[in-house]
Amino acid sequence: MKRLFVVRHGDNSHNRLTQSGIQQMYLLGECIREIMGSWNSAIICSPALWTVESSLVLAKSLHLSLPIIETNNYLTRGSEIGEECLNIIEDFEKNHKENGLIIVTHGELADEIPKYMAKREAISYNPDLGIERGKATYTDLEKKIIRVIP
């Protein structure tokens, strides 16, 4: 894996993605496509309906296969970035041939995963940025950068 995108789901209401959330995911998909070009990527997401819907919009926008829904709830709201969540990233790195991974999750993990990657990869990152709904962090493991998109 050379590139990691940690996406905070789009705007939602009553556990469903709103029209605004759908637009956020299409815009984010365009940003990811600019960065990834023709590199192959995979999407994994929390089982919450609005993250699954966010993932489906991203997959369509990026012409990717359907997302892998993480059923063990390691990517759900309120989760701590524990060993299980980190194992998802490390397992992907070892067992998948894709060059990029897109994780669609909730605020807490969208904030914590980039902090972990910055520490693990010795990358400078301002953890006070916070990830708003419909945005993502982009980690380039070759160039050693982390930034918020769009």
Structural account:
It is a single chain. The chain has 150 residues and is α/β, with parallel strands linked by helices. The protein has one domain (3-149): Rossmann fold (3-Layer(aba) Sandwich). The protein is built from 4 helices and 8 strands. It has helices at 19-36, 49-62, 83-95, 107-121; strands at 3-8, 12-13, 16-17, 41-45, 68-69, 100-105, 136-140, 145-149. The strands form 2 sheets. The protein has a 6-stranded mixed sheet, sandwiched between helices. Helix 1 (19-36) crosses helix 2. The longest helix is centred in the first third of the chain and has 18 residues, at 19-36. It starts with a strand and ends with a strand.
Name some characteristics of this structure.
two-stranded antiparallel sheet, 4 helices, globular, 150 residues, 22% strand, Rossmann fold
Kindly summarize this structure in a few lines.
This protein has four helices and eight strands. The chain is α/β, with parallel strands linked by helices and 150 residues long. It is globular.
